[in-house]
Amino acid sequence: MEFGAPCSRALNGGRPCGRAFGTRIRRAAVESRSPFGASSFRVSPTPAAPRKNRAVKAVLKGHTVSVDKVGKMSSQSSHDFELSSLTALSPLDGRYWSKVKDLAPYMSEYGLIYFRVLVEIKWLLKLSQIPELTEVPSFSEEAESFLQGLIDGFNLEDALEIKNIERVTNHDVKAVEYFLKQKCQSHPEIAQVLEFFHFACTSEDINNLAHALMLKESMKNVMFPVMDKLIRAICTVAKDNAYISMLSRTHGQPASPTTLGKEMAVFAVRLSRERKEMHQVEIMGKFAGAVGNYNAHLAAYPHIDWPHIAEEFVKSLGLSFNPYVTQIETHDYMAKLFHTLIQFNNILIDFDRDIWGYISLGYFKQITKAGEIGSSTMPHKVNPIDFENSEGNLGKANGGLSHLSMKLPISRWQRDLTDSTVLRNMGEGLGHSLLAYKSALQGIGKLQVNEARLSEDLNRSWEVLAEPIQTVMRRFGVPEPYEKLKELTRGRAVSQESITEFIEGLELPEEAKINLLKLTPHTYIGAAAELAMNVDVAVNLLSGLEIF
């Protein structure tokens, strides 16, 4: 796999974000070495076994995994398994890796460690800029460049080194501090102030900012661009089919006609509204020590305005400052962001299901791809798998995001540790969402409108003109218009001839009668076409963003 840069240039003062992320590494993962790979996997029958008890062996570069006839795997095999695309517990890290790997530089363990390193170094640099803190004098340009280089050049080997330190400390944040001290002890200027790494900090001061930056950069660089691409794709379908008439269905029954494009526009506008809400969520951070009161800071330097220093520091990272906290940042912004993401996903589920239904009705055909198989037994099938995949992953994403949004704002007294393990799963919710968006986009790209099928349904549904006829009758004072149309149409076969005969027998002004006689199920679409054609303007106005 190959990671992209874990941060924006803006976060790093315009500098590139690190040489590590141009480096290709094997997918085998955390320890960077695996005893086996997909290419070395072969299956063979156990030669000595009688036929009825014959087992299967999987040979993994010298490791043999026996599987008996009913699929029971021998107990020792689990000790041989290391992370690969075949052994990953989550399909995001296996089957779907190529679709979601853009999130890895931000939402992985690597991403968390990287942003911890960034925060620790930026805090030391901030301390050097406080005149009253004489023990940490202003760094020379060369020293600042050295520290910035630790951020820019941070790579997978550095992250593995920190994990090795953690094996001794059994504390992930302390391992980062020790790593930085080791890296800087050879620099004469920085070596004088090594104990000011992590000065007055609780681990959560570092972690909450790291998690905030992980979210901020993930949303900005990965999630929002794909969301915008999805909204644009739906808008294109809306405009391309603005004038394609379609029979509506309410309660599953024929209803007043619309256009295919207008129904697509509805989803684009709904999604853009939630996209705007997400963009407006303030990503927040705290830096107030063990219980939120700057106790240690003021004990060491009672005359420094630490709340002001903390606010400046948090804002310098591109985050909003939360001054009222306990040991942890309250996570309320996370709950708001995840709730809004859930709603975006819910709207997309609605879209997926509608498209699935339109494909079932024959309103859309799907462009086939050579070599693809729809069913293992029914060769004719072209299944709507992209929309089904999207729907399934959106449900999985929402389950995780719902737990995050409900759990994270709750913490016992000044802090418990339940948020720590939960926060490590942010990437799961974003990953399944990202996978779903890409599946929906792939499905949209295969759609082909079947105008003949749309026209066929409209031609069989002349009863939908009961609505405009009875409405015009009301205007001109014809008694009991609704009741008369109900008697004509409800539960009865209605044809163009019967509708024409009914209109001609009405006591209406001639112009009104002529206008009604011109109506067909194809033309009775109201303002649907105009609404579809104006979708780009509506999306930009609602989102407050230039999606187009």
UniProtKB/TrEMBL annotation:
Residues 107-397 form the Fumarate lyase N-terminal domain. Residues 411-525 form the Adenylosuccinate lyase PurB C-terminal domain. One of its GO terms (biological process) is purine nucleotide biosynthetic process. It is an enzyme of class 4 (lyase). It catalyses: (2S)-2-[5-amino-1-(5-phospho-beta-D-ribosyl)imidazole-4-carboxamido]succinate = 5-amino-1-(5-phospho-beta-D-ribosyl)imidazole-4-carboxamide + fumarate; N(6)-(1,2-dicarboxyethyl)-AMP = fumarate + AMP. GO terms for molecular function: lyase activity. InterPro entries: Fumarase/histidase_N (IPR024083), Fumarate_lyase_CS (IPR020557), Fumarate_lyase_fam (IPR000362), Fumarate_lyase_N (IPR022761), L-Aspartase-like (IPR008948), Pur_lyase (IPR004769), PurB_bact (IPR047136), PurB_C (IPR013539). Keywords: Lyase, Purine biosynthesis. NCBIfam families: PRK09285.1, purB. This is Adenylosuccinate lyase. It comes from Eucalyptus globulus.
